[in-house]
Amino acid sequence: MNMLKLNKQSRPDFGELSRMISGMEDFLDATPDFADKEWRDNLDVIIDFQDDDGSFKLFDSYEIPSDARVDFCYVPTYICTAALMKAYLTSPDEFAEKEKSALIDGLKMSCVKNLRGHGYDAFKGQIDALKLFMNAGLNEFLD
Fold it and tell me: Is the pLDDT of residue 119 over 80?
């Protein structure tokens, strides 16, 4: 697993945006292991990257075109929140208050955005977002 490097952008660098999303997806796909220093460091990177509003957006503002807002503000929020949920399910006893708070805030923001997609593929986008959470263990989480 590579170390995550996340930074907010004011002007889009699509190569960098793509790299950050890919890194988030890799972290989501990884098996949570609180004993693994690199995995734990990446978890801290994600938590430290979270905005006050609970999002994990890759831009410093929501003032961008709606398609880009979904792809680079909402989707990263869904990915990181699903990763936090997966980590919680793997080892709830290892989950400190900081992690719990980040998960709660991420879930709130994800629900506020209704797992929104965009354009003609809005419904497909919602299904894809729901799949992220399902693959991270949503059914178990709800139980």
Answer: no
